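Input structure tokens:
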């Protein structure tokens, strides 16, 4: 549109010049001729200047200092990238603006405002699409390979030795023994164990009585009620419980732990068996089934309405906790700003690199067209102004010459 007005202005100046030639005998013809010639000269000169910025005027390539932007493209690109990187988006400028931000207040305000239904729907849809694109078989294979590599490089025997050593030295073996003893006592007090104990004691005594005399005496004692297997099992059970609650039992347990630690540490064959069992265990894990179960559970949870209620409640609790604790606010704000500044300083050169790469990879014709689109429209008004100003100057000169 601006180019059209510029061309119309040149056309009007040419028309006025032709009119002045036709009516050259009239008294006003010299003034019109001077004005139109000056307007033509100014308009053509500005047309040449504006056109020479972007291309060769009339396609004449041998004219000097034409197609200036194309000829100096690399220099212009470097200048623009440097301007953006060091001036418009310099490290100091961005850091000063980051320092002015009230990050903690913005985070609290964000946490206090639960996600709108539109945002919830968009996030749910995006995650569902992401899950649908995820190849579960390849994910299972990757998890299996990753776990196998990590487990294979881990010396489980040394971990066992370190754990047992830590248990003994830190005296954490005492609560472990108490936990185990408590559950063993629960088993001993069960009806099933009492009945099994009676049967086993009876079988043991019957196997112990080998001679006929012993069997006869045992049978006599059983018939007289002297041998009561139920009372005997209760007595044995009580003795076992008393032993488990004694200091001696813990000492034996601790001694067993030390023996296990020494054996695992020094027995090369046992260590090899432990490492082999560890590697074999990883191969028997049904990774495909595990991934399928996890993905199914994630999809189910994601599409439940209660999920967002829980997320909204958690966000509200976090906002309340932050609002009530200025120290945590200051710590959070400092952490976010330090992290942001650290990332800025590390990746700031990418700003200029991105500008430079995008402009360099742009096609030359596209590069010129974009510049002309954003800048050339205003430059066309220079042509209009050149014709108008030139015409006014020509008219003024003609009047001065006539007066003088």
């Amino acid at each position: 549109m601006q180019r059209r007005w510029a061309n119309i202005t040149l056309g009007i100046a040419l028309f006025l010049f032709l009119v002045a030639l036709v009516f050259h005998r009239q008294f006003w013809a010299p003034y019109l001729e001077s004005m139109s010639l000056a307007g033509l000269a100014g308009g053509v000169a500005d047309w040449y200047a504006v056109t020479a910025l972007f291309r060769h005027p009339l396609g004449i390539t041998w004219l000097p200092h034409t197609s200036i932007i194309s000829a100096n493209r690399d220099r212009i690109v470097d200048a623009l990238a440097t301007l953006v990187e060091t001036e418009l988006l310099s490290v100091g400028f961005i850091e000063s603006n980051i320092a002015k931000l009230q990050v903690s207040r913005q985070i609290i305000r964000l946490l206090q405002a639960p996600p709108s239904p539109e945002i919830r729907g968009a996030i749910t849809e995006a995650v569902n699409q992401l899950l649908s694109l995820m190849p579960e078989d390849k994910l299972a294979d990757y998890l299996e390979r990753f776990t196998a590599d990590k487990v294979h490089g881990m010396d489980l025997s040394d971990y066992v030795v370190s754990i047992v050593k830590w248990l003994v030295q830190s005296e954490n073996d005492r609560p472990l023994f108490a936990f185990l003893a408590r559950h063993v006592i629960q088993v001993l007090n069960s009806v099933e164990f009492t009945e099994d104990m009676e049967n086993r004691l009876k079988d043991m005594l019957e196997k112990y009585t080998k001679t006929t005399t012993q069997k006869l005496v045992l049978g006599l004692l059983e018939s007289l009620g002297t041998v009561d297997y139920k009372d005997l099992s209760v007595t044995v059970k009580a003795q076992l419980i008393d032993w488990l609650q004694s200091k001696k039992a813990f000492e034996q347990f601790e001694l067993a732990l030390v023996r296990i630690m020494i054996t695992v540490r020094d027995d090369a064959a046992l260590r090899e068996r432990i490492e082999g069992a560890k590697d074999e265990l990883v191969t028997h894990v049904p990774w495909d089934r595990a991934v399928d179960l996890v993905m199914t559970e994630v999809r189910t949870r994601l599409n439940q309405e209660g999920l967002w209620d829980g997320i909204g409640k958690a966000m509200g609790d976090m906002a309340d906790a932050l609002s009530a604790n200025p120290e945590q606010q200051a710590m959070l704000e400092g952490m976010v700003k330090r992290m942001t500044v650290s990332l800025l300083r590390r990746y700031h050169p990418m700003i200029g690199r991105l500008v430079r790469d995008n402009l360099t990879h742009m096609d030359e014709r596209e590069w010129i067209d974009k510049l002309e689109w954003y800048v050339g429209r205003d430059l066309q008004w220079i042509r209009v102004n050149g014709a108008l100003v030139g015409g006014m100057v020509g008219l003024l000169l003609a009047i001065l010459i006539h007066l003088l």
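The two ends are 42 Å apart (CA to CA). The mean pLDDT is 76.
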